[in-house]
Please model this.
Amino acid sequence: MHETWRERTALKIIAGVPTTGRDNTNPVLHYTLAWHKDDKPNPEHMQKMALESLKVLGLGEHQAVIAAHTDKVHLHVHVVVNTVHPETGKTAALKYTKEKFSRWAEAYEREHGIHCEERLRNNAERERHAQARKTARRMDPTDLLMNRKGDAKAILLAAPDPKAPKPYVPVKHQAVSRKQWFDKKEITDRMKAMRASLDAEMKTVRDATWARHSRERDTLDARTETAIEAGRRQVQDRYRPQWRNLYWNQKKEARHVERLSGDLLDRAAYVYQNRERLGGSNGPLTLRRMLPLIRSGKKLQARVGQIHETERRELAREAKSEGKGVADLALHRHRAEFNALRDRQISERQSERDAQTQRRRSVSFALAKAALIKEHEAARPLAEPRPLRRSAEPMPLQQRFREATAPPPPAPAPPAEQQFKQAANGNARPAMSRAEQIKRDMEEWRRRNQGRDFGREM
Model:
């Protein structure tokens, strides 16, 4: 296959086929024929279908490799065919291969009792469109003007189907001149420059708005922190007398217990009187628990010190809990104010973006064109102003044709004295128009080129 593709030009020369045309860059075509997993075709049938598929594409005389695979749940055949003819060297015209295969597969399924609903629908839709195109060509109203075959009454009375696709109408390309193209490019560049300047200005405004919103949020945070600190100071000021009294009473009790360290009876009386306080959370002291404190003054002092530490911790815990309540109240108020501030700032920024978007849209092609025209008129001297050519309104085709085909302006007539001398010398020739000159040149050309005039000269 590669040798055939490589020698395609030599094969064309040997077969007498022209070597012109587009070069073949796809030497082979690969496709697959697959059966359903429930179908069990034999190898001979699979080979026969592969050869028929080559004939469907017009590749029956081309080199091909056919390989059957059973690595999947469904049987399938791979076909690799050379697109270059082995004798003529010509490349096969592979057009509408999928449609040809689809119709061939539909015929195969009808013959073997298989139905692929999707393929049937697709082919029916293709047939409907083909009939619609034929009908459209047959019902073309230009048949009346061009004296073509067709029923004039049917053409005039036929109502178009509103659901039918509209026929393709080619649009003639209207190229603009170089001057118009550069005018449009200049206006487009000016519009881009104006929008870039506006974008820079709007970015400055957005940055200023964001900085102001950041300051507002920082101010709210600072105000909340100040409120929390003020509330904590109030709690501390309120608990300061309690701390003072607690420390004074504990110090007084500690000195009293220290004096009782040498008198057993006084210690016994103190322990018995304060048995509930010395017991703590475990209840009043029993006689068994009181005896160690009565016997030893150091144990009594240590127990009193533990009680003092417990009282200080309870008071500190109470003050801390009240301070936390004050902070939570301030934070709750801060959260509500922050949500309101956030919603207001989001709405303000959205309104600003909408206004800026509308303002940016106002910088249109027409606005840039007007600004450029005004600038050109201001830069032009006070002579007669020449407006900028409108790129959106090109010169009419008839006017451009007249300007392109107009004859050059006639040469100025020679002075009277020179005409008199030419007449006296016998060399005077009547003035000849451009059309007459072309006609004379064509007659001379026909005399020199007999039989080469096909009647299509301009």
